[in-house]
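[Q] Does anyone have a clean structure-token version of this?
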Amino acid sequence: RPTSPPAPSTAAASRQAYLARTTCVGTACFMAPEVVLGADEGDGGGGGGGAEGGHGPPADVWSLGMTVLELATGCVPLAGASLVEVALTVAHRRPPTLADHCAATGTPAPSPAAVDFVAACLARDPGQRPTADKLLGHRFLRAARPDAYVAARLVAAVSAAASAPPSPLSPSPA
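[A] Here you go.
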């Protein structure tokens, strides 16, 4: 009969929990300034997160804002920059704006609601970022199209891409 692995000791479980909160995992382009700086609550790093190393819900809200930037333009913010360049930019420069990112990538201008949503998510001070509950009531999300509309658009886009001639840059089929 199968047996479960032994439960970790309290000390080991505590260390695992600590590492999960303080280890840098993910794509640097999406990390909040307080995560890049390793800010702890009360260390002058902006606070608001309440978690060691800057990890916590406000950092997740930052990552959501960066994800919306990518979804709106199809381009990862700071793509092509080195890890050091990304860290310095995120830690010390003003946050990107959706309008600037769209202009830089040649993407059509975003709606004012989308611009406001991203700006709220990318507030430099984690204490100034809205909570996930507050974001759910934001006009940008309230104006979202129904799932059926989005699904139909995706199916149409995939069908069009499948019937298009291959690009000369596309890899040849194996």
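[Q] Thanks! Anything notable?
[A] DSSP finds nine helices and no strands in the chain.
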